Amino acid sequence: MSAKTKRRPRQVLHAVTVTALLAGSAYLTVELRKDEQAKAPAVQAVTDNPALRSSNLKSGEQRWERLRNPERTLLRGTDGEVLATFTDGARTATLTGPSRTFTEPSTTASKVVTEDWVRLMPYQWKKGAENEKWFKDWFKEFFGSEEDDLFATAFQYIAEAPVKKDDEGVPYAGDANFGPLNPNGSEGNDLRLEESDFYDYLGIPYTFRNGMTMQPRTERARSMDCSGYIRTVFGYRARYPLMATDKSGDGLPRTANGMARSDRGTDVIDLKGITSADRPKNIDVLQPGDLVFFKLDQRTKERLDHVGMYVGHDSEGHKIFISSREEANGPTIGDKGGTSRLDGNGYYAATLRSAKRL
Asked: ω before 70 within 30° of 0 (cis)?
């Protein structure tokens, strides 16, 4: 958010990563409410024997390399392994770090084991940026860091995630709903209402950079729809600029359709159309942290109607994403109402239409 934002000053507490080495594993604990310490789930783990440790990531010879489609810069290590990826026109960077395991036992037995840490840079990447002071300062701080990244933040809203409050007592993280029950909906047919954004979840008014103030709706407290979830993770938490609506302001638009068609970031899978014939032929270009867009409902006509964040491969080798969904009533990598896999011919794989790297 811009420093010009007129909302009440609020210092959001950042989660502190604590690695406890145990005989068999080490778990990333999270700040818990005192009365929930005994029942809060461990949603992220840092393994005790990662392939790469933060202490030795910077050792050995490193070299920069340029690649195309999309235009990007890679940092390679001594053995040619990719240590970091930076894409022209995008602020998200993928850095290699200690291995982590993300789980969501309430909806799926699948796990995401990854050495990818996805972070937001202060400026868009461009060719030669590795020589600029802003990047050198940023890279020195975050390469090998175990401070919460976009993945860690995203999993702070899954089922049973413990509540986190800022210094004014506002709960800024914790188990999120998709939206309130739709009085005219039914199971599998608009059971829950859309349009819950991050300020609804927070329960506080929010003034955007263009001066427009949006008011939270009481019935939508602790709720965020698919695009509201992405705006929470990338915008409210990581400080990517946000638009108040799809047409008002400068930043990431309000809806999945607005995001997909925005000139923000870099399109890594171009939007060809909305029909089944427009399904991407190849999705290997996807990188952890990319936004993925779907056409699920014919009633939305030309609009794309769902968005999630690609997180890599699950424990069974499938490409998987996380999103806030009506069927699971909130953020999930699970399989209620259709799997969260992008490969094969499942529900979401067949309805994927484009992808963007912010």
From this structure: yes
How would you class 170 by CB atoms within 10 Å of its CB: exposed for 0-12, middle for 13-18, buried for 19 or more? Answer: middle
* Residue carrying the six token digits 């997180």: 311
- This prediction has a pTM of 0.85
- Helix (H) / strand (E) element for 291: namely strand 291-294
Q: Which residues contact 171 (CB under 8 A, 6 or more apart)?
A: 163, 164, 165, 202, 222
Say how many Å lie between the first and final Cα of the chain, rounded.
Answer: 15
SS3 173: strand
Please write the tens of the pLDDT for every residue from 140-162.
999 999 999 999 999 999 999 99
Q: Tell me if 15 sits within 8 A of 30, measured CB to CB.
A: yes
Under 8 Å between Cβ of 260 and 140: no
What is the b/e burial string over 123-137, where b = at least 16 CB atoms within 10 angstroms of the residue's CB? ebbeeebeeeeebee
Residues 330, 177 contacting (CB under 8 angstroms): yes
Cβ neighbours of residue 351 closer than 8 Å, sequence gap 6 or more: 279, 294, 295, 296, 306
Characterize 3-37 residue by residue with b for buried, 16 or more Cβ atoms within 10 angstroms of its Cβ, and e for exposed. Answer: eebeeeeeeeeebebeeeeeeeebbbbbbeeeeee
| Res. 102: pLDDT tops 70 | yes
CB atoms within 10 A of CB 252: 22
DSSP state of 252: B
